[in-house]
Specification:
Layout lengths: L1 H4 L21 H7 L4 H12 L37 H19 L15 E4 H8 L5 H15 L8 E3 L9 E5 L5 E10 L7 H6 L14 E12 L5 H15 L6 E5 L17 E4 L6 H4 L2 E4 L15 E3 L2 H9 L13 H8 L6 E5 L5 H23 L4 E2 L31 H4 L9 E2 L3 E4 L3 H16 L29 E3 L1 H11 L16 E2 L28 H24 L1 E2 L3 E2 L2 H12 L9 H12 L3 H4 L8 H5 L13 H17 L2 E2 L1 H13 L10 E4 L7 H10 L7 E4 L14 H12 L17 E3 L7 H17 L20 E3 L10 H17 L13 E5 L2 H5 L10 E3 H4 L4 E7 L13 H16 L33 H13 L2 E8 L3 H13 L4 E3 L1 H6 L3 H5 L4 H13 L3 H10 L3 H23 L1
Helix pairs in contact: 2-3, 11-12, 18-21, 22-23, 25-30, 26-35, 29-31, 34-35, 35-36
Length: about 1100
């Protein structure tokens, strides 16, 4: 046994001589209880030679020697080490033996024991990944879990964990031994504790400057066990510890920090001398003077230890849900929620009597709050439903009633709905329900106009569901297409993740009355309508977002290829069906149709004065798309009503609205004359049919609206009418990213919308139970982008404040949590006619190499991929050169709501609708410089840094004075630009071919020292390439070269092989390129 064991008890646990049985007897006990024989004597000597402890007490409290006859048993004469009791050895041996016995008797760990333990435990994404790794044996995973369980119970005995030395005094790191080589690395850390803090409502109502709070901000912090790493090679412990220290040293630079103080030990309930209990901390409002700092701790988020990444680390609760998934070793793709900030936690768990409005700039966590709140409600409901084994939510029998006019002065926040119950109230009133009451399962709906974002959020929800024991079996396992009608959707297909177009199609098919589109009996479209077919709006680029990293598994390639073949057959069949369908004679008026076809015919005397995008916005957002217009039989505001709109709500064309209304009337006439329709026509049709429904066959309880700024008031009114519990609606967005053509939106106006819905539309009935939100909650900290990117974005917001202050909601300036690299202006990219086609090709090739060269392994990205090329519109995407087509190419609108490590903004200014309008930025810059120069004489406070050398350069753009009537188009362009640059987490590269149109903004960025500028010489000589390519190894460059070769991009492949130092392959690639050029040359003269 000793020879097989080989000195490593972890390798052969059953053969471990330190094991004990259920009576607590070790090997020495068994030998001592046996009669004396030559064999038992040799066994005693062997155990002594192998240093097996003879000092272990069994459950009777006896040592092995207590079973021997002291008078004549020769075994008592064995070496003294067999009899001498070493207290430390006894404790260690008993502990190890107990652990072994637990592992033998309790192989199936109950994950529920991890709930409500003394200690809260969290782990890094790396630990979560290791525990999901199929290559790690289940036995080892169980051992890891048992060790962590002991720690969480407070059993920090010396044989279980040992403090690591040579670490900074502020970082308390420990190791737990798993085997001779393997260790768990954990920290005694401090983290926000939701379970100890006050509830979400109390935390949100506290103002930060209130002095009389019992607990500052209602937030309590606690010591936690933070599992940083699991190493399987003892030599890698040092490297792991250095990464932890690096995360702390980088986190110390965070601009958002708090001071916390420990609660006195006397205030903590003792748990016994043998158990360690966590210390509790409160936020301190003491000034950070020398004396107070000695008793305070600095609390700040930690940054990634990777120098090329500038974002906070995510941690996961090591709870019953995580443990259950580790033990089950599931093969499906799964994920668990990461730990959010204290404010995000409050928003996710807030119990509100009114709809929740959430405003935040890009990267502040709006979509996470939206998804996690939906997820939390979903899990809570199904936990109750499983326990009750029935549907729980009662449906209103009387769908509409005639209500009196609601008193406008009444405090709507304090009112409660008498008509419907929220899911949390069902238990109180269940006994009161009459027999025959219809009950439903919870039906939730997530809606956003961005089809890519919608699909990504659905994918994340599916991964969360796969990891939850409670709901895993109630969510459809297969990706089933939604039926044509809502009443045909099964309970297991909820929540629905949907775009407004798809929802409108389903509502049109589901409601009574003549459908807007002609339907078959199954609800499908009888005639093809361009832009509105069931197949339109497919997520063409979604599959590319699954490219998580360079190390993706390729074991399912054959299955994928088969799936592709099957999908091609389906697509062929679908295309055949489409060819057989009739075509609807009506056409939709999109903005493109309006600008290119309608506008030239209705604006003969106004075409030079007004931009079509602004006229389109005025019609779709106010004249036809406002909440008031929805109540009109005509479907639009009268001229008097339009003229009376407030200037803040509709800032454009004040004083010129009579002209705008005349243009609208011409548009309306032209539309009816040419058999055209717009989206508002369908919205109003569905809205009127829905409000006339007296008996519903289906129900939607909760609606979550993401990117709310893309919706018109008319669409939001429809969602309010559709939602069974309108006070549980959740709306998140950012008006600085309002880039949807035809939409003018401010969160300030949402309260007015709810108030109007409550008071002016009382005849509809459903709106009488809508409470008006008292406040808009704000997320102010950006967790996506670093300070380098946010400084650039902030400068764009400065322009919006200067030119269009009423077009978006103002928020506190976000400086960013961590510093980071400056965005890059690729100034080399002027493609005038004097530049040859070869130079053009060379520059495009360099861009391709820069992008592919910077592919990296990175931390998990919630919503997006690693790199993307962003363009203005579909036409711009078609013009992207072939050399860049291996990358993910998205329009700015498609990318909205997503995040990427690196983005290349390609030809934004060249494809911009603004031309000379950009020159107003030069005028603003010169005024800014003048203001700075004058103010420097008195004070430097509040001034921006200006590089005066920029003004000395030749060929500067000419300044243009801003005209609020002539330059409105710049509003939308600035919002597009802001949205684009804030997609990035690490790098932003801006490339543009149009020298004239890019010049004002390029100069503005350079003058404010916000960018690093790279010339064509630097790109070609690779003097700047290291900044992009430092994370790519020689092997990775060669891999990229092979990829480009497969796609016949030989020039780019040659550059990759050169950087990969494979000069032979470089010559081959260049030879292929020469042959390709020669073949083109021959073809040209044929």
């Amino acid at each position: 046994m000793f020879y097989i064991d080989g000195g490593d008890p972890e390798k052969y646990p059953i053969l471990d001589p330190a094991q004990i049985n259920s009576d607590g007897d070790g090997l020495f006990h068994l030998v001592a209880k046996a009669k004396y024989t030559v064999t038992s004597q040799k066994a005693t000597e062997l155990l002594c030679d192998k240093n097996v402890s003879a000092s272990v007490l069994n459950k009777e409290g006896k040592l092995p020697k207590d079973y021997l006859n002291s008078k004549n048993d020769i075994r008592l004469q064995t070496p003294a080490r067999a009899n001498k009791m070493d207290v430390h050895k006894v404790e260690e041996q008993e502990g190890q033996a107990e652990e072994k016995n637990k592992g033998k008797e309790d192989l199936q760990i109950d994950p529920r024991v991890f709930d409500n333990l003394e200690w809260e435990v969290e782990c890094t994404a790396d630990v979560w990944k290791i525990l999901q790794d199929k290559k790690v044996l289940p036995e080892l995973k169980q051992r890891i879990i048992r060790k962590i369980l002991l720690l969480a119970k407070g059993e920090w005995t010396t044989h279980l964990c040992k403090e690591l030395r040579n670490t900074p005094p502020t970082i308390k790191l420990y190791e737990v031994k798993l085997s001779k080589a393997s260790r768990i690395i954990f920290e005694l850390a401090i983290a926000f504790s939701p379970r100890l803090s006050q509830n979400a409502e109390q935390r949100l109502q506290y103002a930060e400057d209130e002095e009389d709070q019992p607990v500052r901000g209602g937030r309590i912090y606690s010591e936690v066990i933070r599992v940083w790493d699991i190493v399987f090679d003892h030599d890698k412990i040092f490297k792991s510890v250095q990464r932890i220290i690096k995360s702390y040293s980088r986190g110390e630079k965070c601009k958002v920090q708090k001071k916390i103080k420990g609660v006195k030990q006397g205030q903590i309930k003792a748990a016994g001398n043998n158990r360690k209990i966590p210390m509790v901390f409160l936020e301190s409002n003491l000034d950070a003077d020398v004396n107070s700092l000695e008793n305070l701790h600095r609390y700040y988020p930690l940054e990634s230890s990777n120098e090329t990444e500038n974002h906070i680390l995510k941690f996961y609760n090591f709870d019953s849900n995580l443990v259950s998934n580790v033990l089950q070793n599931l093969k499906v793709k799964l994920d668990i929620p990461f730990k959010v900030t204290d404010f995000e936690h409050a928003i996710i768990n807030l119990k509100s009597k009114a709809p929740i409005l959430l405003l935040g700039r890009s990267g502040t966590g709006k979509t996470i709050c939206c998804l996690y709140r939906l997820w939390s409600q979903f899990v809570s409901y199904w936990t109750l439903a499983v326990a009750a084994d029935s549907k729980l939510l009662p449906r209103c029998q009387i769908f509409h009633q005639n209500y009196g006019v609601v008193d406008e002065n009444r405090d709507s926040e304090e009112e409660t709905s008498a008509e419907v119950e929220t899911p949390s109230e069902y238990t109180k009133n269940k006994e009161k329900k009459e027999m025959g009451q219809i009950y439903d399962h919870l039906h939730q709906l997530y809606i956003t106009k961005n089809a890519v974002l919608c699909s990504v959020v659905q994918k994340n929800f599916k991964a969360l569901s796969n990891a939850c024991d409670v709901v895993r079996h109630f969510v459809s396992e297969e990706e089933q297409p939604l039926p044509k009608r809502i009443q045909d959707i099964g309970d297991n297909q909820f929540p629905i993740f949907i775009t407004p177009k798809k929802l409108l199609l389903m509502l049109d098919a589901s409601l009574k009355g003549p459908c807007f589109f002609v339907r078959n009996d199954d609800g499908s479209l009888k005639a093809e309508v361009k832009g509105w077919s069931e197949s339109d709006g497919a997520f063409s680029y979604f599959s590319m977002l699954d490219e998580e990293s360079d190390e993706e598994d390729e074991e399912n390639e054959d299955v994928q290829n088969q799936d592709d073949d099957d999908s091609e057959d389906v697509n062929d069949h679908h295309m055949h069906n489409r060819l057989r369908k009739k075509v609807d004679p009506r056409r939709e008026v999109t903005y493109e149709v309006f600008a290119e076809e309608v506008w030239p015919r209705i604006s003969k005397k106004w075409s030079t004065r007004y931009h079509p995008s602004l006229i389109w916005m005025e019609i779709m957002s106010f004249i036809r798309g406002s909440c008031q217009a929805m109540s009109k039989s005509s479907g639009y505001l009268s001229k008097e009503e339009y003229l009376d709109l407030g200037r803040k709500r509709a800032p454009n064309f004040s004083g010129e609205r009579e002209h705008i209304y005349d243009i609208f009337k011409k548009y309306d006439h032209y539309k009816r004359q040419k058999l055209l329709f717009d989206e508002i026509d369908l919205v109003q049709n569905v809205f009127n049919r829905l409000k006339n429904e007296t008996e519903m066959q289906w129900i939607v309880h909760q609606i979550y609206v993401d990117e709310t700024q893309d919706f018109t008031e008319a669409e939001l009114c429809l969602l309010l009418l559709l939602c069974h519990y309108p006070n549980e609606m959740f709306l998140a967005g950012d008006t600085a990213q309002s880039i949807m053509r035809g939409t003018a939106f401010r969160f300030q106006d949402l309260s007015s919308l709810f108030f109007y819905a409550k008071t002016s539309m009382h005849a509809i009935g459903r709106y009488s139970c809508v409470n008006v939100p008292k406040e808009v909650h704000q997320l102010t900290d950006n967790y996506r982008s670093h300070a380098g990117i946010l400084s650039l974005a902030s400068s764009i917001l400065d322009l919006m404040v200067e030119f269009f202050p009423e077009s978006f909601d103002r928020l506190t300036k976000d400086p960013g949590l961590f510093p980071g690299p400056l965005p890059v202006l690729l100034e080399s990219c002027s493609f005038r006619q004097v530049i040859t086609e070869n130079i053009h090709l060379m520059l495009n090739n360099d861009l391709a190499v820069l992008l592919r060269g910077n592919m990296r392994k990175t931390s998990h990205i919630e919503f997006g991929a690693h790199q993307a090329i962003l363009v203005v519109n579909e036409a711009a995407r078609d013009n992207v050169p072939d050399e860049l087509h291996l990358g993910l190419i998205l329009t700015i609108y498609e990318a909205k709501g997503l995040e990427f490590n690196d983005i290349l903004l390609y030809n934004f200014f060249k494809d911009s609708q603004a031309t000379k309008e950009w020159r107003v930025v030069t005028d603003f810059l010169e005024k800014l410089a003048t203001t700075n120069e004058q103010s420097n004489l008195h004070s430097t406070e509040g001034l921006v840094s200006i590089n005066e050398d920029v003004f000395k350069l030749g060929d500067r753009p000419r300044p243009l004075a801003f005209d609020p009537n002539q330059h409105k188009v710049l509003n939308s362009e600035l919002k597009h630009l802001y949205t684009a640059v804030t997609r990035a987490r690490v790098n932003v590269w801006i490339f543009d071919e149009d020298l004239d149109k890019r010049a004002p903004m390029f100069e503005y960025f350079k003058a404010r020292n916000l960018t690093r500028n790279v010339t064509s010489v630097e790109v070609e000589n690779d003097s700047a390439g290291w900044k992009f390519a430092e994370e790519s190894s020689t092997e990775q460059w060669l891999q990229r070269g092979g990829e480009f070769m497969k796609h016949s991009l030989y020039e780019v492949a040659a550059k990759c092989f050169n950087r990969g130092k494979n000069y032979h392959m470089e010559k081959i690639a260049k030879a292929h390129q020469s042959a390709l050029l020669a073949s083109r040359f021959v073809f040209f003269f044929l």
